[in-house]
UniProtKB/TrEMBL annotation:
<dbReference type="InterPro" id="IPR000157">
    <property type="entry name" value="TIR_dom"/>
</dbReference>
<dbReference type="InterPro" id="IPR003591">
    <property type="entry name" value="Leu-rich_rpt_typical-subtyp"/>
</dbReference>
<keyword id="KW-1133">Transmembrane helix</keyword>
<dbReference type="GO" id="GO:0006954">
    <property type="term" value="P:inflammatory response"/>
</dbReference>
<dbReference type="GO" id="GO:0045087">
    <property type="term" value="P:innate immune response"/>
</dbReference>
<keyword id="KW-0399">Innate immunity</keyword>
<dbReference type="Pfam" id="PF01582">
    <property type="entry name" value="TIR"/>
</dbReference>
<keyword id="KW-0325">Glycoprotein</keyword>
<protein>
    <recommendedName>
        <fullName>TIR domain-containing protein</fullName>
    </recommendedName>
</protein>
<keyword id="KW-0472">Membrane</keyword>
<dbReference type="GO" id="GO:0007165">
    <property type="term" value="P:signal transduction"/>
</dbReference>
<dbReference type="InterPro" id="IPR035897">
    <property type="entry name" value="Toll_tir_struct_dom_sf"/>
</dbReference>
<dbReference type="Pfam" id="PF13855">
    <property type="entry name" value="LRR_8"/>
</dbReference>
<keyword id="KW-0433">Leucine-rich repeat</keyword>
<dbReference type="GO" id="GO:0038023">
    <property type="term" value="F:signaling receptor activity"/>
</dbReference>
<keyword id="KW-0395">Inflammatory response</keyword>
<feature type="transmembrane region" description="Helical">
    <location>
        <begin position="762"/>
        <end position="791"/>
    </location>
</feature>
Length: 951
């Protein structure tokens, strides 16, 4: 697209030149202009990773300005009621479409016909009542369809006919009342792998109503349906491995009737949560799944005798995982799991358990995973010490306040321990002494104020330690020196004020440390406490009390030893007052990629601040008081890809012009004072694909005419929320939308100008070529005719005598003959006054002589000047009607050879002439006739002297 030029005021120079409208295009008579491709400035959406995000925009219809190139569209959380057949016709490249949480009650037939590449379709939480015939026509490649929480009661026989590639279908929380509705769905889905039909109104499940026996179905969820009878009389699910038949809120018992144990012989996971199951029913279930079941979920079994069910289910020899969440268990006795000798995973989460017998898990000598989170435990149960094979233990969200030295005794294989969200206030040095293989320890969100050396000696294999959300006030020297394998340390949201020198000694493998939201001050950084973290990749110090009031270099930069650090976030300012950063604050960070100095009340940045960080790609200096930024700041970081400069009080983005950030892709500059944006800014950032300028106050006049057009039509850079940009000046246009402003009066279409000028140039060239080829002699004659008219007008009132008797017109190649033969005879012997050619004023010379003698040869006819002389003389002949022209031929030139010289041929037809070749034998006669011709009267008449017979 060419960029317009504003009238009267200087506008940015246009990008496109006249050269792209070539002669070929003009010769093809292209009379119309190309309509610009719709750009990225969408009224209600934004583009992210080629996905149009239009969620939560209060839309009533599908927007029609979405680029046809997107492969994803998110229209969730809007107010769309009806989907029309034309809504997606131009979005044939879509691979995922999200329409959840709208008010959709109708979808027109053929709506999805063009979406041949669509893989995922989400229609959850709408108001569909029925699925009509051919509703999903065109979706042959769809693999995932979600219809959760609608009001679907009816399914037409061919609704799912086109969905031959579908592998996942969720049609739960609807109003399906009969299994035949499910059959209508299944008969057209040969590749369906997972079907979720939970929380409908199915009252029976009879296999004879499912006639299709070629199903690949592996996951079937029928939970929360009021199924009274579950009867399988045929092998309709030969591939089923996961089955959920959990109960509904309606208090109904389900009759379980499986005629052949082999019908469900592949099911490994069974969920009967919430069902009212008697011991006899459980025996039937046990018999059905006795050789395949590995995971049994019996959550929320509030109206059953749970202990009896556990004893029966644990006799299944293949059972290894038992889930018992939300079962109102208060106490676990010693014989509760006595039969469960094969169980390796036990989930007792979300029960009000207060006490566990010390021998409750004695029989579970192979247990690897134990979840006791969200209970009422006040201490670590002694029972866990009897689980030497335990690898994961979750005790989070209990009421544990104290940890003792023997709490985790014998757990030498434990790899993950979760103790977060308890009330632990302190640790003991010996508490983790036996956890030699522990890799993950979660202690966040307790009330820890002291670590008491708990991490100085033990936990040699710990890789992740979470201590955030506690009440730690200081990190002492060598506090973590026993954690030589630690990679991730979370200390954020504590009350840390003091970080002693050597606090992180021993953490040579640490790559990530989070210290944000503490009370750390500048003096702690100056101690060099981070110098031991030689392999650190990420350091977060946001929201601390670190403040520098000077920009002069530091004697000991705080991060000078962290050469491998890639991400650094320095604190936002808690206290009042402006701050600066020392010019060598980042010294040593040669591999830094991401730097955030957000909200630290910076007044300025030293020009050489980033000379130490040549690999920097992301820079965030938002929420500061940087009213001006020097382009030189960016010279050392030419690899920068993302720049955040929101809320910095900047008045202009012109610094980007000289900064020349050619790799910059993302620019967020919200809530500043930018009023005018020129194309020079964006031509200096050719890689820019995302621009966020929300909350700026724009000037709505011709100065922003270019930007308004560019925001709408450029196809590379997405200008986020451009349709909501508001004018702040001039006052009469305040609160007007920038893109609603009519800027046609400001813009001259350079493409149109180029088109017209190029057309005119080519037409002129063609006219000149034609004239030169066919009319050049006529034009030359007209030129001399004009000169003669001027001469005649100039001398019409003058009666001056002729200056010469004759003007001699000849070619320079014939000059020897004129000098040797003609001049001696005419001037020497006969006494005539003769005038030879005068280049400066031919017309005056001819009109100043009584006669004009043309000495004609072949070279004479080819001479441009001689042609002009004879043209002037012939004009005098015809205009004044005077016998002024004498033709003397030095060569015999046949008439047919005179054809190109049409004016000479015309003269020969009306004039007499002398021929020198014919006078070779009688030269004296030739000169006598020439003398007589010079003596004749100038008036033309019938008595004129005949020189020679005409050829």
């Amino acid at each position: 697209m060419g960029r317009g030029v504003k009238e009267d005021k200087m506008m940015p120079k246009g990008e496109s030149g006249c050269f792209k409208l070539t002669v070929i295009v003009l010769l093809l008579n292209i009379g119309s202009f190309v309509v610009p491709v719709t750009g990225f400035s969408l009224k209600f959406c934004r583009i992210s990773y080629n996905i149009a995000i239009c969620s939560n925009s209060k839309l009533n219809t599908v927007p029609q300005d979405i680029p046809s190139t997107v492969n994803g569209l998110d229209l969730s959380v809007n107010k769309i009621k009806k989907i029309q057949a034309s809504d997606f016709k131009n979005l044939s490249l879509l691979m995922q479409l999200d329409l959840k949480r709208n008010l959709i009650w109708q979808i027109d037939p053929g709506t999805f016909a063009n979406l041949i590449f669509l893989k995922k379709l989400n229609l959850n939480n709408n108001r569909l009542v029925q699925l009509g015939d051919g509703l999903f026509d065109g979706l042959n490649n769809l693999t995932e369809l979600r219809l959760y929480r609608n009001h679907i009661r009816a399914v037409a026989p061919t609704s799912f006919k086109s969905l031959t590639s579908l592998t996942f279908l969720d049609i739960s929380n609807n109003k399906l009342q009969h299994i035949t509705r499910v059959h209508t769905i299944l008969q057209h889905l040969p590749n369906l792998w997972e079907l979720v039909v939970k929380n409908n109104d199915l009252t029976t499940f009879q296999s004879w109503e499912l006639t299709n026996s070629s199903l690949k179905l592996a996951y079937l969820d029928l939970s929360q349906n009021p199924i009274a009878v579950f009867r399988i009389t045929a092998d309709v699910f030969p591939n089923l491995t996961w089955l959920n038949i959990g109960g509904s809120s309606k208090k109904l018992q389900m009759k379980w009737d499986v005629h052949n144990k082999t019908f469900l012989s592949r099911v490994s996971t069974l969920d009967v949560s919430g069902l009212q199951i008697t011991s006899d029913d459980m025996e039937t279930l046990r018999a059905t799944f006795n050789s395949s079941l590995t995971t049994l979920r019996m959550n929320a079994m509030k109206r059953t005798h749970l202990a009896a069910l556990i004893n029966i289910s644990c006799t299944i020899p293949t059972l290894s995982a038992l889930q018992l969440e939300r079962n109102s268990l208060h106490y676990i006795s010693s014989n509760f799991f006595q039969v469960c000798i094969n169980v390796t995973e036990l989930d007792l989460s979300d029960n009000p358990i207060r006490y566990i017998d010390d021998h409750a898990f004695t029989s579970l000598d192979g247990l690897r995973i134990l979840s006791l989170n969200r209970n009422k435990l006040t201490s670590v149960p002694v029972a866990v010490r009897n689980l030497p094979t335990l690898e994961e233990l979750d005790l989070s969200k209990n009421n544990i306040s104290t940890l003792k030295c023997n709490d985790f005794a014998n757990l030498k294989k434990l790899r993950q321990l979760s103790l977060h969200q308890n009330s632990i206030s302190a640790l003991q040095e010996c508490v983790f002494k036996d956890l030699i293989r522990l890799q993950v320890l979660k202690l966040q969100n307790n009330t820890l104020s002291k670590l008491n050396g708990a991490f100085k000696k033990y936990l040699p294999n710990l890789k992740q330690l979470r201590l955030n959300g506690n009440k730690l006030t200081a990190i002492k020297h060598g506090e973590f020196m026993g954690l030589q394998s630690l990679q991730n340390l979370s200390l954020h949201e504590n009350q840390i004020e003091k970080v002693e020198n050597g606090s992180f000694i021993g953490l040579t493998n640490l790559t990530d440390i989070q210290l944000q939201s503490n009370y750390i001050k500048k003096t702690e950084l100056d101690k060099g406490g981070f110098n031991h973290l030689i392999n650190l990749r990420r350091l977060d110090l946001r929201d601390n009390h670190i403040k520098y009031s000077y920009s002069s270099p530091l004697p000991h930069p705080p991060f000078s030893q962290l050469s491998r650090l890639e991400t650094l976030a320095i604190p936002g300012q808690h206290s009042r007052g402006k701050s600066k950063l020392p010019s060598n604050f980042l010294q040593g960070l040669t591999n830094l990629v991401d730097f955030s100095a957000r909200n630290i009340q910076l007044l300025s940045l030293a020009k050489d601040m980033f000379k130490y960080t040549p690999r920097l790609q992301t820079l965030d200096i938002s929420s500061n008081d940087l009213m001006e930024v020097s382009p030189e700041l960016f010279f050392p970081i030419q690899s920068l890809k993302s720049l955040y400069i929101s809320r910095t009080s900047l008045w202009s983005l012109d610094f980007l012009i000289d900064a020349k950030l050619t790799k910059l892709e993302f620019l967020q500059a919200r809530k500043n004072e930018y009023s005018i944006l020129t194309d020079s800014i964006f031509s200096s950032t050719p890689a820019l694909v995302y621009l966020d300028l929300q909350g700026n106050s724009f000037t709505c006049d011709c100065d922003n005419a270019w930007f308004s057009k560019w925001a709408l039509y450029n196809t590379q850079t997405q200008v986020f929320d451009a349709y909501n940009f508001v004018c702040n000046y001039p006052p009469d246009l305040k609160n007007t939308k920038l893109l609603d402003l009519d800027v046609r009066s400001c813009i001259v279409d350079t493409e149109f100008i180029c088109y017209i000028s190029t057309t005119c140039t080519i037409l002129l060239f063609m006219a000149v070529s034609f004239t030169y080829q066919f009319l050049r002699w006529q034009l030359a004659y007209a030129y001399y005719l004009f000169l003669a008219l001027l001469f005649k007008t100039k001398h019409k009132n003058k009666q001056a005598h002729d200056q010469y008797d004759a003007f001699i017109s000849y070619n320079t190649h014939d000059e020897p003959w004129v000098i040797r033969e003609m001049l001696p005879k005419l001037e020497g012997e006969q006494g005539w006054r003769l005038c030879k050619p005068i280049i400066d004023n031919i017309t005056d010379a001819i009109y100043g002589s009584r006669k004009t003698i043309c000495v004609i040869s072949r070279r004479y006819l080819e001479s441009e000047w001689c042609s002009r002389e004879i043209q002037v003389a012939s004009f005098r002949l015809f205009d004044e009607q005077k016998d002024v022209l004498i033709l003397v031929f030095l060569e015999e030139i046949p008439t047919n050879q005179l054809s190109p010289y049409y004016r000479m041929r015309k003269l020969l037809k009306t004039r007499t002439y002398l021929s020198w070749p014919r006078a070779e034998e009688h030269p004296e006669l030739f000169w006598e006739k020439l003398r007589q011709a010079l003596n004749t009267r100038e008036d033309l008449g019938d008595d004129r002297f005949l020189l020679v017979e005409r050829a």
